[in-house]
Amino acid sequence: MAEPLSTMADGLSTMAEPLSTMAEPLSTMVDDIPDELIKKIESLGKRTHNKELLYEIVVEICKIKPRSISELADILNRSDNYVKHDLVLPLRVAGKLDYTIPDMIRHPEQKYKAK
């Protein structure tokens, strides 16, 4: 016989960890990024209007080591789509970022490195 919903919900609530304890601070997610740069990233907020600062940060991150779109999105706390179209694409066109696999630009392991 099936358990009552209230009993099942009680069991789930003890298994689920609160989101606040699951989310890692940025500094533990990216050990290779200097503290100064981490502070810049954390000070951005979710809706910064300073795109030049975002461009600068992306280039600095990619100077440390090549990064994928999803890695950059995680670091910057932005969507993959936003990072790809609003940050990486303009930086590539401007000649500030290069593909790590230029012969296969849609390669699933494609990353971007700073020039």
Q: Can you give me a brief rundown of this structure?
A:
The chain has helices spanning 5-15, 19-22, 26-29, 35-44, 51-64, 69-76, 80-93, and strands spanning 97-99, 112-114. By secondary structure, it is mainly alpha-helical.
Structure overview:
There is one protein chain. With about 120 residues, the protein is mainly alpha-helical. The chain contains 7 helices and 2 strands. It has helices spanning about 5-15, 20, 25-30, 35-45, 50-65, 70-75, 80-95, and strands at about 95-100, 110-115. The protein has a two-stranded antiparallel sheet. Residues about 10-25 have low confidence and may be disordered.
Keywords:
115 residues; two-stranded antiparallel sheet; 7 helices; 2 strands; 5% strand
Largest sheet: 2 strands, antiparallel
Q: What percentage of the residues does DSSP assign to strands (E)?
A: 5-15%
**Please, what is the average pLDDT?**
83
Q: Number of helical segments?
A: 7
Which regions have little confidence, pLDDT < 50, spanning 5+ residues? Answer: 12-23
Would you tell me the structural class of the helices and strands?
mainly alpha
Looking at how many chains there are and whether they match, the oligomeric state comes to single chain
Give the distance, in angstroms, between the N- and C-terminal Cα atoms.
65 Å
Q: In terms of topology, how is this protein built?
A:
Elements: H1 5-15, H2 19-22, H3 26-29, H4 35-44, H5 51-64, H6 69-76, H7 80-93, E1 97-99, E2 112-114
Antiparallel strand pairs: 1-2
Helix pairs in contact: 4-5, 6-7
